Amino acid sequence: MSSLIEKPRFSCALAAQQTVLAIPGGIPVIHAGPGCASKAAGFAAFQSGLQGEGYAGRTHISCTNAGEKEVVFGGEKNLEQVIDGALKVLKGDLFVALSGCTAGIIGDDTAQVASTFARDGEPVVGVDTAGFKGNNYIGHELVVNAIVDQYVGKVEPSVKKGLVNLWTVVPFQDPFWRGDLEELKSLLEKLGLTVNVLFGYGSEGVAEWKEIPNAEYNILVSPWVGLEIVKHLEKKYGTPYIHYPVLPMGAKATSKFLRTIGKEVGVDEQTVEKVIKKEEKRYYDYFISFSDFVAEQRNVLPYELYVAADSTYAVGITDYLVNELGFIPYGVYVNDDPSSEKADLVKEAYKAVGEEYADTLQFQADGGLITRDIDKKLGKSKKALICGSYWERCIAKDTNNFFLHLSLPISAEIITNSSYVGYNGGLRLIEKIYSYAFNRGNLSSRTHVE
Amino acid sequence: MAINLSLPSPEIRERRLNAILSYNGSASDLLDKSNKGEIKCLGRLYGQCSDCQEGCATSMASFVRGGAVVAHAPIGCFAGDAVRDNAGKAVSAARGLGDFNNSTICTNIQEKDTVYGGAEKLRKAIYEINKRQNPSVIFVTTSCASGIIGDDVQSVCEECADELDKTVVPISCEGFKSKVWSTGFDATFHGILKYIVKAPKKRQDDLVNIFNFEGTDTFTPLLAKLNLRTNYMVPLATKQQLEALSEAACSAQICETLATYISHGLEQEYGVPEVKAPAPYGINWTDEWLREIARLTNRTDLVEDVIAKEHERIEEDLKGLKEKLEGKSVYIIAGDAYTHNLANAVKDLGLKIAGISALHHDQKSDSDEINTLGELVKSAGEIDNFTVCNKQPYQLVKLVKKVNPDFLIIRHQGLTELGYKLGIPTIFEGDANYTVGYDGVIRLGNRLWESFITRKFIQNVAEHTTLPYTDWWLNEQDDPFYYEKGNKKA
């Protein structure tokens, strides 16, 4: 925790402005120094597979641009004026004021300022996301809980059978979040559930958020991020949660996911098995069809696996690549900086990969130490697949090993609706990973090229 | 105005250069009022996110070849580091200098550091980067958090410099201290002048300092025509090259907004003449710039011939472009003096300057002899719709829509998309060196034309865009500067 950081992979709590932007109609208002919102967007919206500003992000983000005057005399008045302006100038359904380091240190009460608007019936929420409070994974939880408390509010739940809230990857910080949410929603719908997806293009926006208390279950698909959300919701609305720690990729993991969730929410077993049978049939038809390629090219294909990603992705992809594609994990680096208590949850989830590989898992927020360790372990190997960020891509390029963009920063791949989740995601991964063989020079089964 | 290197950091631009962030009028009116220094930097009641000086300070420090940067900041300030590593690699390759790797580390300030202080963590980070990279020089940048908690960064740097026997340069660039992000350039230049540059061992009469960003190599061929060598500064320079900045024949810059602090500082401290002619954008300014450099380097006998030949060389291309572009209008959004550069270049293509939004405006310069806005008015005539606005797309959208130009040119990350959303053929001036010189005018014309012939994409974007602004703001409220403090309407 809180180490020095070289080669960064996440931003600060304030970057949870992107969590607000991920809600259709969500408008962040930043109470911070002049560069904070811009830097957070530059990282989370652009070095995340070039996701872009969207409807109201990046330069469009309202900000107090706090200066010396606000630092000395306090900036609450300034924030009030900017929220007031934002409500008049910007078209949105939910305005979330997030404060940064300047406001956090001098003690401006952002939630208090927001509450004066909320009292007048304006959809305004305030949350302290000072950059030194933690990273944007923590910021995501803080923002969601603030919206729950201040916008969804104290209501008597009217539970709807089959309605579930889906909590999983952190929007933007997971570069594939849009596709992932579509895929997870679609999987859960196959079980007959109605899914509040809450973020992304498929969400109904604030209307869904108002429905949060009425869900029968909160489903959390992540080893630790979001746990504070579902626990909070359980306390607030009495909604039980199902914590499924492994992001399902490929057939084995996805079928297991469907079985577990189906059982927990009480979908009858036959329905679940029928879904799985159909999906697996389709999946394995595709799967077998590409295995001819592997059969003939095995000599030049990788098996040594390195993964640098957040806990959700590190566990999910390693599980798939090891247990379905036969990779051997050499180094799996969890880079989202969980507390030691939360790290235990990740270790537990990693058992899905196989207990014999427990010692391949490392927790490392200092990205410079990740790349150094991979470099050292790689030696002269040309048999590695490195899944990670811009920083790992540099190693893969230098050593001519296989590479897959998986974690931030990603500045050399356009990501729209790609997802590696579910049955479809597993197939997509196969395409991406093995097609890389053609990026390493002329590929021919008659010439062994390293 | 004298540069005072005894200060720990430069005076911010709001005070030193009378910088402003908001203005609405015409070029000549702004010039007149700036000359009198009468516009105040008031701020707004509502605004959108700006940028901070830390980004500019780091952009100058982190490309020093062999150097390192310690960011004494929470991780959010440092998260974009990969962009700089990538930019360093790109420019290094483009200039034929081989591989480049960023050497940086962040102290990752935590809540407990804001209570107990972060000085020890900073010391640890300086030692750590020294161990990991063995850099030639270590720059230490600050942040809002480190500034407010009051860490004595300068003392830590001085102690570490002694202990490690290494140059450690404190750069005070707390984001909240200046509303003008360009102040950050001055902050790093201050550190370079104060801690790195040495007295000249010898004069290099054929060496011209060119202060620029990570642009492509367009100055070498231009200056080679006068048998001069280009000394690109600061990105990709080594510490040794920085030490020898004082040995050059003169200093020039791609943009006065970027570098007058250091070029003027070199003139003041070491007698290296600063090129006072406007930067070489547009044909007439390139002529004047070459003449001035020729004068400073005793090459006046060569220069007229070079100029005549260059005019002749581009004549046909220029004619072709003018036939396509003549009479069309262009709107420019860029940093202060860079808007003047671009405006002076587009006029040569026969384009009409429909309006300009400068991201800030310095009402005076570090050198009393430099006034690029005055030069632009002389060169291109009056320009209506001249505004100053630090990004603020809610204002730009109204300003641009009102003028409805045929083209937009934008030099600032994040704003180009606005042109696309409005359906206007828009180009991003990302590489500031690309429009330099005679060839630069041709390149600019070609890029504009390309944006025009591929406009179906832009139109498609516009057709499916919903802007996030209310009808009241877009259609009922007619003053884009409604929220300006002092504006009675708000």
Total discrete domains of chain A: 3
Shape assignment of chain A: globular
Give the class-level CATH name of the largest domain in chain A.
Alpha Beta
Low-pLDDT sequence parts of chain B: none
CATH topology of the largest domain in chain B: Rossmann fold
Mean pLDDT of chain A: 97
Query: What is the percentage of strand-forming residues of chain A?
Result: 5-15%
Describe the structure.
The complex is a heterodimer of chains A (450) and B (490). By secondary structure, chain A is α/β, with parallel strands linked by helices. In chain A, 46% of the residues lie in helices and 14% in strands. Chain A has three domains: 13-152, Rossmann fold, CATH 3.40.50.1980; 163-265, Nitrogenase molybdenum iron protein domain (Rossmann fold); 298-440, Rossmann fold. In chain A, the strands form three sheets. Chain A has a five-stranded parallel β-sheet with strand order 11-10-9-12-13, with helices on both faces. The mean pLDDT of chain A is 97. With 490 residues, chain B is an alpha/beta fold. In chain B, β12 (407-410), α19 and β13 form a beta-alpha-beta unit. In chain B, α3 (53-61) packs across α10 (183-195) and α16 runs parallel beside α17. The longest helix of chain B has 26 residues, at 300-325. The relative contact order of chain B is 0.13. Chains A and B meet through α2, β2, α3, α4 and α5 of A and α3, α4, α5, β3 and α6 of B.
TL;DR of this structure?
The complex is a heterodimer of chains A (450) and B (490). Chain A is an alpha/beta fold and 450 residues long.
Keywords:
heterodimer, A: 450 residues, alpha/beta, Rossmann fold, five-stranded parallel sheet, four-stranded parallel sheet, 17 helices, 13 strands, globular, B: 490 residues
